[in-house]
Design a protein that fits this description.
The protein is α/β, with parallel strands linked by helices. It is built from 8 helices and 11 strands. Helix content is 32%, strand content 21%.
Length: 257
Amino acid sequence: MKSAFKFVLNTIPRPILIRLSYLARPILAAALKGNTYTDPIDGKQFKSFLPYGYGNQRNNVLSPSTLSLERHRLLWLYLQRETDFFSSPKKVLHFAPEQAFYKRFRSLKHLDYTTTDLFSPLADVKADICDLPFKDNSFDIIFCNHVLEHIPDDTQAMKELYRVLKPSGMGVFQIPQDLSRATTFEDDTITDKKERAKVFGQYDHVRVYGRDYFNKLRSIGFKVTEVDYTKAFSDADIERFCLAKGEIIPVVYKENN
């Protein structure tokens, strides 16, 4: 019954899930209030976080208040402590904006902030990542997190990301990644949704990225920094913030030519 429920949840369209999560969030945050774990995005503390995942469910990872996962909290801490994102004027493009970030980024008056996606109700511009309606060299920062694994032609998507990023601009392109794999795995002969969810993590993922992901970005022209930002924290802080030790943030740059 539990696995069947998780499969049904995994097939609910994202716009509906977003609306449902907004309704549930205040109830969850009140029920789990405590002082053991801290969500660095809003500073709220809880006695536990929620479980999350399909197939191999992870315990204590979903924040009851921001609905952030490990990757969201790690990226927030990186942006807050290692960049001028929260203080310097930037023109930002955000693909498939995450709930944990959307309202917070939108409220930052120094940002010229645009969201885009084909389906998300949070998108300002409905657009295909492989054919973007933006001029060359338009954005100082691009966030494209957990998007590319959904895109059949990720090479073309990467080329479009490179095209619209300004010279000296920065991007963060997080993806589900199996660092034990040297090469990325794809198999479009697997068409059953349950089997795709089992193999790829979600039914609508088209690949599992390996360590070669970084070199693929480099082949497009990006300078890539593989940031293991969890090394900046003690084990106690990794536990307190509920981070995934060893997770890599792919930070990319478009160099001036």
